[in-house]
Amino acid sequence: MEETKEKRIELAAFIRWINEKGWSPGTSTNYSFLHPEQEDKIVISRSGIDKTYFSEDDFMEIDREGKPAKGSEGIKPSAETLIHCELYNLFPSTRYILHTHSMPGTLLSGKKEWEEAITFSGYEVLKGLPGISTHESEVELPIFANDQDMDRFRLLIRDNQNRLQTGGFLMAKHGLYAWGNSLQEAKRHLEIYEFLLTCELNLLQIR
Amino acid sequence: MEETKEKRIELAAFIRWINEKGWSPGTSTNYSFLHPEQEDKIVISRSGIDKTYFSEDDFMEIDREGKPAKGSEGIKPSAETLIHCELYNLFPSTRYILHTHSMPGTLLSGKKEWEEAITFSGYEVLKGLPGISTHESEVELPIFANDQDMDRFRLLIRDNQNRLQTGGFLMAKHGLYAWGNSLQEAKRHLEIYEFLLTCELNLLQIR
Amino acid sequence: MEETKEKRIELAAFIRWINEKGWSPGTSTNYSFLHPEQEDKIVISRSGIDKTYFSEDDFMEIDREGKPAKGSEGIKPSAETLIHCELYNLFPSTRYILHTHSMPGTLLSGKKEWEEAITFSGYEVLKGLPGISTHESEVELPIFANDQDMDRFRLLIRDNQNRLQTGGFLMAKHGLYAWGNSLQEAKRHLEIYEFLLTCELNLLQIR
Amino acid sequence: MEETKEKRIELAAFIRWINEKGWSPGTSTNYSFLHPEQEDKIVISRSGIDKTYFSEDDFMEIDREGKPAKGSEGIKPSAETLIHCELYNLFPSTRYILHTHSMPGTLLSGKKEWEEAITFSGYEVLKGLPGISTHESEVELPIFANDQDMDRFRLLIRDNQNRLQTGGFLMAKHGLYAWGNSLQEAKRHLEIYEFLLTCELNLLQIR
Asked: Which residues, if any, are the signal sequence (chains A, B, C, D) (predicted)?
């Protein structure tokens, strides 16, 4: 673990910042990065940690199939570890994966009328998402039904790979996954989606 | 009091954190823990303290019937002390009780149409509550009418013991009680309920 | 000024805390306390100061009619100084007066249908207001039309003295005045009214 | 650059404060000031910087037509640099220009029914805007359609100069520009408009 200490410190600080925003209630949410030197390893947040106090020691190492790696044996990884594994496999340039559990993401993903996606249209901030160069764009943030069976959910993501080109998706009544080729990029995608979800929620609340 | 100093410091910091979130307006809310060595004693916040500046010295010790214990004679405990006493009696594994007074809790508990409970359904975050292992659950957060007569209110809680298995209830236009076997667990229950109340309020505000 | 330094430091810290909450946009809002030794003097915030950076040096001394006192000649007091003078005269036990400019207070005071008052009913937190001992109470927070003529507005307050027994009033589309016999009490009244205004606004936003 | 170091430190701190409020999601927003000694130079934020960590080194110097000045060759200025250039030309006393990307500004500017302006009426806080001395005023905050062609957008601003006398405008689904003769004044205009946008959004959300 020692060789990733700096990255773990940086990501832990980011996780506490996320928590301050109210985006990780209870012990929800999880976070990972690809080991910078050993790409067969993923460094991921442990299960059940309160993100208010999350530290660089609250990570563990797993292999690309979600099994605890040497030095992390016996530690329980997040229940959603396989989602991380699958995203790293589907998008090989991905280096960081972030999962938040904000109120707007939880609420909007649970509305029946949007069973498949929320569409954002005409927003300047869309230009911060992969492949978008003008506000005259439409971006679909896919919504997948929540599932406790992670093997099944992993296949669902794989089957929907073509819908995951803009760096994020929602699990219904569960929250947002966002990723990128660096912490900076993953953070940018995350912030943009959280911002847009807040916009859309407030728009729906206008009489 | 000296032997509980570390726990008082920890809880006082948590109380100021609650206050920063706006969940303890005026001098509202109260907090307690069971004395770790003398289980006939409860350490509870004093009455009338502004939680912005709450410190480890703003606690007192009471017995299991709410009377000031030796060393705390003449200090006024919170008006709602008997609620704490009753919860420790009903749920013997409880170690911490937390009471917040947030806007969503205050407002939603006062809606006439929900005179008995608010039901949360299908949320991933429900898995952080006692006995819940899947999002495919329904959890009822009981609402009790507010009452200035604490002897009467205490009996009401006792009569409703079977509805209090998921670690929380609301007093109408008054706020949330949440508890757990540790500060970490009580905090988790509290955050989950506050998060869900905010979700439900925003859902009701969608046109 | 020197003899009030400690009180100015304490109030300035409180003012920056108010600002952090977003309750003093632009250079709005003003604050005062009665000189603790010379009751013919009021210590009040100067005009036009950004509250983000408000310090103990941003006060001045005025007499009970709002004229700059010795040592503060040539400094411009807040435009609303006469409101403070009148409240100290009407309620002789008052020691602190606080004026915020929050979004809920600004917005709700401007609704035509509440030209005279907002009524708060059944809230536990009402018990923190003067003379209220049960949640089974109704408290009216008076709303007065905004006015640039402070001599006229002062008379309006005087004429409505009997409606000002619970420590606060609103100026329409302008904000809240709250006061008390100590900073602690004035802060309590302020927080309670701001909390209740947020509740009522959210209640109106439920479909 | 060295001679503007103090001003860059001051503005960078302000930019991080803006970010904390959630008004600069992703790498959105930009900020500038006129070089205090060489009025043919503008100091402006670089393109693509996350404002969470914005520092005094994240500025660059450009000429009045938006070209990188000596010492800043090869650095990419913000895409919206020409908006800054045009505003400094149209309003020669302007010293600071601030651009935020808040949720209320983004959302309200995108409502079809307000294609040209949002009108604020009767608010006390209007008195903090240029030329307004009473709350009995109406101020129009112009809304311009978003545009990726900055040469064209610049002309649009020029043609609407007479509508820009109160220190701000909105770009649809993009955010607010505000300016002033000092950082203090520009900040005041910015805060007032953001406050009023939040008021109007909440007003529209009342049932």
From this structure: none
Strand order in the sheet with B96-100: B59-63, B41-45, B30-34, B96-100, B175-180, B168-171, B138-144, B117-121
Q: Are A176 and A102 in contact (CB under 8 A)?
A: yes
DSSP-assigned letters across all residues of B111-162: -GGGSSEEEEES-GGGGGSTT--SSS-EEEEEEE---S-HHHHHHHHHHTGG
Q: Which long-range contacts (CB under 8 A, 24 or more apart) does A120-123 make?
A: A120/A196, A120/A200, A122/D110, A122/D146, A122/D172, A122/D173, A123/A196, A123/A199, A123/D106, A123/D110, A123/D173, A123/D174
Our measurement of the distance from residue A15's CA atom to the centroid of its chain's CA atoms, rounded to an integer in Å, reads 12
Query: Chains near B, with 3+ CB pairs < 8 A?
Result: A, C
Q: Suggest the residue from C100, C107, C203 to mutate for an interface test with chain D (most D CBs closer than 10 A).
A: C107
A204 vs B124, B187, B207: nearest CB: B207
Residue A15, pLDDT score: 98
Query: Does the distance separating the beta carbons of B148 and C123 come in below 8 Å?
Result: no
In chain C, what residues touch D136 (CB-CB under 8 Å)? Answer: 148
Neighbour-count burial for C167-182, b at 16+ CB within 10 Å, e otherwise: bbbbbbbbbbbbbbee
For the residues C174-188, what does the mean pLDDT come to? 98
Cα–Cα–Cα angle for D31, D36, D38, nearest 5°? 105
Report how far Cα D27 is from the mean position of its chain's Cα atoms: 15
Interface contact flag, A199 D174, Cβ < 8 Å: no
- To the nearest whole number, what is the mean pLDDT of chain D? 95
Q: Which residues contact A9 (CB under 8 A, 6 or more apart)?
A: A56
> If we measure between CA atoms, which residue out of D56, D55, D60 comes closest to residue D44?
D60
**Quick one: which H or E segment has residue A81?**
helix A81-90
Give the DSSP letter of residue C167: S
- What torsion do the CA atoms of B115, B120, B121, B122 make, to the nearest 10 degrees? 170
> Does residue C126 have a pLDDT over 90?
yes
Task: Name the one residue in this structure whose structure tokens are 């601003």.
Answer: D157
Indicate the domain borders of chain B. 2-206
- Terminal Cα distance for chain B, rounded: 53
- Spatial separation of the C-alpha atoms in residues D135 and D121, rounded to whole Å: 8
ipTM: 0.96
Q: Which chain A residues contact residue B195 at CB under 8 A?
A: 22, 25-26, 103, 106
Radius of gyration of chain B (CA): 16
Give the end-to-end CA distance of chain A in Å, rounded to a whole number: 53
Nearest Cα neighbor of D202 from D103, D112, D116 is D103
The pTM assigned to this predicted structure is: 0.96
Q: Which residues pair with B97 in a beta bridge?
A: B32, B179
At residue B59, the 3 state secondary structure works out as strand
Q: What is the pLDDT of residues D171-207, one digit of tens each?
A: 999 999 999 999 999 999 999 999 999 999 999 999 7
Determine the Cα–Cα distance for residues A146 and C180; give it in Å rounded to an integer: 52
Nearest chain C residue to B171 by CA: give it.
Answer: C124
Please provide the CATH number assigned to the domain covering B2-206: 3.40.225.10
Instruction: Give yes or no for residue B179 having a pLDDT over 80.
Output: yes
Residue type, D190: L
Per DSSP, the residues of D5-24 read HHHHHHHHHHHHHHHHTT-S
